[in-house]
Amino acid sequence: MHGMNYRIALPADYDMGIIRQRVATRGHLLDTFPGLGQKAYLIRERGTDGSPVNEYAPFYLWNTAQGMNSFLWGPGFRSLVDDFGRPTVEHWTGLGFERGPEVAQPPAAATRAARQLAAGEPLAEAVARELAELREVAARPGAHSAALLVDPRHWELLRFTLWRDVAPEEPGAERFQVLHLSRPELDAIDTGRQW
Fold first, then answer.
1. CA within 13 Å, CB half, 51
2. Within 10 Å of residue 96's Cβ, how many Cβ atoms?
3. How many independent structural domains does the chain possess?
4. pLDDT tens-place string over residues 78-103
5. Residue 149 sits in a domain of what CATH number?
6. Are the CB atoms for 162 and 144 separated by under 8 Å?
7. What is the phi/psi pair of residue 182, to 5°?
C-alpha cells in the first residue's frame, strides 16, 4: 500500500462551489481505476471545522505502484496540473490498514494526523504503538477506515482516517470534508500490518 496526497491552497475568497462541481462531474472517473484502493476527494473550507484556509487535498491509497504511476503520468493528473499548476505530491509507504464499522457507507469526513519520529525513538516500538492505536481508532463508532503510513525520508508517521459523518476533534489533526470516495480496489487493501 502506498499513500499519496497533494494539497492545493486556494484564496480565502475562492468559491469552493467550483471544487464541488469539479468533483461532482469528474470524481467518478477514478471509480474503476486499476491499482487504486481508494481516493478521497477532500476539501477544507476557511471557517469550517476550524480550518484557517480553503484547500483541495485529494488523498489516495494505492494497491500498486504501477497504478499510482499510471495516474501521475496520465491524463487525470495532467488535467489537474493544467487547472491548478503542478502541486507537491507527498508520498508514504503503508504500515497498516484497518476497516471500520462504517466501511460499507460513503464517508463524509476525514482526519489527517502527522507526527515526527524523534531521532532517538526506537522505530519498532513506535510503530507497534501506532498500529495498536490505529486498530482502536478504526473500531470507533462512525469510522470508515484508517491507514498508518510512513515517510522514511523525513521520519514522519501519518494516520489518515475516514469517517461516516463527522470527524472527531483530535489534537494536532486536520479535519476535512469528503466530497466523493472512489474505491475500486478497497476490498483488496490488506488489513493489519503491511509487512
1. 24
2. 25
3. 1
4. 999 999 999 999 999 999 999 999 99
5. 3.30.70.100
6. yes
7. -85, 130
